[in-house]
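Margin note from the TA: students keep mixing up input and output lines. Inputs are the sequences; the output is the structure of the whole complex. Example:
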Amino acid sequence: MTETAVAPAPAPERPTVPAPAPVPWPRRARSVAKHAGLIAFALLMLYPLLWMVASSLKPDALIFRETGLIPSQVDLANYTEGWTALASPFSRYLLNSAVVVAGCLVGNLVTCSMAAYAFARLQFRGRNIWFAIMLLTIMLPIHVIIVPRYVMFSEAGLINTFWPLILPKLLATDAFFVFLMVQFFRGIPRDLDEAARIDGCGHARTFAQIMMPLAVPALATTAIFTFIWTWNDFFSQLIFLTKPDMYTVPIALRAFLDSSGESSWGSMFAMSVVSVVPIFLVFLFGQKYLVKGIATTGIK
Amino acid sequence: MSALNELSSLARRRGAATPTRKGDARAAALFLLPWFLGLALITAGPLVASAYLSFTDYNLLQAPSFVGLENFSRMLEDTRLHQSLAVTLVYVAVSVPLQLAAALGLALLLDRGMRGLAFYRSAFYLPSLMGGSVAIALLWRQVFGKEGLVNLVLGWFGIEGQGWVSHPDYALGTLILLQVWMFGAPMVIFLAGLRQIPDMYYEAASLDGASRVRQFASVTIPLLTPIIFFNLVLQVINSFQSFTQAYVVSGGTGGPADSTLFYTLYLYQEGFRNLNMGYASAMAWLLLAIIAGLTAVNFFASKYWVFYSD
């Protein structure tokens, strides 16, 4: 079927000879050229990333001389030096980031899906209005609320703790994921939960034992995006975490700029590589859900 | 397909009463409890507070003092604010169309079950997952630095390059390039959209003797316009709020010569460095107004070019 869309229209001046069974070579040549072009372009796109990995293995002096991907001299010192270059060992920052990510994951997975269940399945007064409000909050820039949020957490003595980063997720403020789950829940046949209700299941059990197991793909998408966005988040972590031993990975990386100027690109690259490894792993193993999530809901 | 469509369909159905079911109200209250708390404490409360703060002088240490419209009149004279608006508008106006064009172009090349599709999609998608991170911004700083990778390559051709990130004429360009580099996410959305175009349209078109170019112009593009529109709205909203890249590449200053002073970066400097929390709040409301305005313009203009088949 797809062939009709791909087949080039015959050039008008050529007599209408039926095409021979094997692929005519101009078409094959075009396909080869297309693949060659795409591969070259993909390489160009990924080159900075690959070069960063290669450079993290080179002595500083070589980073500014070599454009290739294979280091002429492999040196793991960047990793050992970078690991201890800041006030705390880098493991500390990785751990901090992991704690923040874990808190956000629990929050988004539990509370966003609870809210989504109410919007998708329960019939209560004012549902449309609350739902509209929820959708509007998706589009609200964080900047409009960050100052009072800062004041609030500062009054509560929670600056330089992880609460300002985690608490909002425990309260389902990542409305985007509520919406994502609502859409998924709507696609689950109602017969299933109606049957459970007739059998005497309350809403809590219907939610926990019927809906949640069926929603695993949506939960996976939520988990993956929460992970990546929280891991990469810079703005709010920069604002709420100012004490060096509370730094998360992005804030620690930025501190490389402050502390060492530009003198130690090697160790900075090494720690940069360390910082993107988790993203890469999530990408590698969660690709299916990433692509599906992005395609069905259209996010950044 | 998106929150935006959902909202507009809700608006159309306005007035229709939601059916209620006995017992659901109590369950809803429980299931929505965290969300209600979050709305009140984390979103709506701070929203109201920030509206109030925008009319005050507040430095976090003393109580806010009401100053009327002073923050807004200061905006009229604040040349750094004007600079930050100009920088951000140029950034959005250049990077969004380029990024969407790249995304659409690649999606069209990759369309329709070509061999290696999964590989290409991954290769082009990966940068958009990493591009927003501090690590990549640091990398960009090196690659476009005076002795960076780009200049090394230019050196082969005997060209002596600039320090691209440290030159006021080029620094913003490097950030635009970074944004364009992240075209993979809209590309995936385009790919999904292309797959939804039914084959029969193409079959009918080719039976009628339409050439490939004609099919592209009369079938593919019109049916894709809702997705182009959706991507456009989304990318404008997002790129207006870009922060990390400019912060890291300029070392937090927005330099050289304020050429990378993104609006959000200036807001951060005013609010959290200079502790002008009142002014920062006022700036945040201007940001919201601009984003809402641009989105409204987009929606208005969409009547003239977006094609809805149903």
